[in-house]
Amino acid sequence: MLYQTNNPHGGDIYGREVLLDFSANTNPLGTPEAVRQAVRDSLEQMDRYPDPYCRRLVQAISRFEGVAPERILCGNGAAELIYSYCEAANIRLGVELAPTFSEYALGLTRMGGRMERYSLSRETEFSLEEGFLDFVGKVQPDAVFLCNPNNPTGKTIPRQLLEKVLVFCREHQIRLFVDECFADLSDREESLKDLLEDNPHLFLLKAFTKSYGMAGIRLGYCLCADEALLTRMAHTVQPWNVSSLAQAAGVAALEAGDFLKTTRSLIQTERVWLKRQLEQLGFWVCPSETNYLLFQGPETLHRDLKARKITIRNCDNYYGLGPGWYRTAVRRREENQVLIQTIREVLGKE
């Protein structure tokens, strides 16, 4: 647990009453009922140690991703795998985007490394461009960290550019870490998993947290053809790091049929509506391709909403952003309407 340390993330609803949480961008449909039932059924085995090899879960992931089982390693959430990767790969110098998810840099600095940042801007709608390759060439890092779609911008890196980064990193002996945790909720999947076999320097991160509304279970996995790296990563954590409940939930989630397809359809409809409403309120909103929106508004907005028991993600601690920047999850229409109505009241537009 955290101890006398600030939590730099959304979803912390426990220190006060919260009626609607838009700060955590998990699946707006919640957790599939089949997953809930799988957890209930697994309670009968609480007296047993979990499978340290996650056998059933690895096989289910292999079928779902079309990747060989020996290319898969499971962890106690995506965050554990980030920290394990930084330690096992012995990364001393990394490159990431700004803004992006904070745990890459936190995992790196915990191991005594440091992170250089390539700044994205509102003027280009926070899109990554080919100038990034020149930056990487000058820095010559041990690893490049990309989030695709990026958090908090919601922007997807085009496949053509991704492949250029992949080739560049291979030619310069640089590891490429790509976080695809939001890929299953995005409009277009730009996964590089079909290129794993020929690129052992490539590492892909996935999780059940966002896609299947399983943030409380803590379950993530990675895909990589570098078996030596996966072995070293496994040695950085204890053998029973993935609980029996999490393993059962993961297997059930991957068998949930059209759940992700239904979710993506809802997100696409509601994101268009929510973006338009925020823009009509006078906010600048970054075009997104997944289940959250980055926008710029009044510097007190998050506090004013919190006073009304609604939370959004205050993004002032992201590198490259500052006060007045926020991220909101895209949720169901009735919830989105409450958010917009409350913002109207806060702004005195009612």
- Rg (C-alpha, Å): 20 Å
Please describe the biggest sheet, giving its number of strands, its sense, and whether it closes into a barrel. 7 strands, mixed
Number of H- or I-type helical stretches: 11
The rough form would be described as globular
Low-confidence stretches: none
- End-to-end span in angstroms? 42 Å
Helix/strand class: alpha/beta
> Average pLDDT, to the nearest integer?
95
* Run of helices and strands: EHHEHEHEHEHEEEHHHEEHEEEH
| Proportion of beta-strand residues | 15-25%
Taking strands numbered 1, 2, ... along the chain, how are they ordered across the largest sheet? 2-8-7-6-5-3-4
How many strand elements? 13
Give a verbal description of the structure.
With 350 residues, the protein is of the alpha/beta class. 36% of the residues lie in helices and 16% in strands. Helix 2 (55-65) packs parallel to helix 8 (244-254).
